[in-house]
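WARN no homologs supplied; continuing
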Amino acid sequence: MIDDAPKIQIDQPLRRARAEQVAALTGVPTGFLVDALGGAGALDYRIKPVVPEQATFCGSALVCNAGPADNLAIFAALDSLQSGEVIVAATGSHVACAVTGDLLLGMARNSGAVAFVTDGCVRDVPGIRQVGLPCFAAGVTPNSPARTGPGTVGFPVVVGGVTVANGDIVAGDQDGVVVVPYERIDACIERLVRVRAAEAELDAKVKAGLKSTPWNH
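OK structure emitted
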């Protein structure tokens, strides 16, 4: 019908983090990022790398809301994807079926994605390993989704208990995934100087034999 809502709604313009901001946070351990953010920012602990040796990534978020048991929004996101971005797909924490497999992840890699993150499940682990794109999910199941919509691209979503908006910086490693909100990126980069210095100082002391600290007492 002429009054039917579109199956996919795309926010315009799509906000993106600057390349120099992403570069400044690339390779930073997720624990350091959390400390720089004041102790929070990580997604639910169950969202972990599907292939542990393919866990490290950092990029500007391209968010989509696929909803439960559907992945039309993820396919739609490919058309808006820019090189160096992380596809973050919300499913409402639906885990009864996979939201993607190796073929869609291969298309995402070919389109320039540096990682894929979802609060749902994925499938085709051997193929995902071959694709080589860091993939974080709440679990793995062979069950497959529909591709009917509705869904959104570019509008804020909630994944793993954290609100993620387009242009936030998303980083991951074997500990999990951290989201640096767009408005806090520069402050996080600045605070990382102190976080790194404090970590290095305490690390040196521990290696030198430190057994206790003032806050133990």
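The chain has a mean pLDDT of 95.
OK
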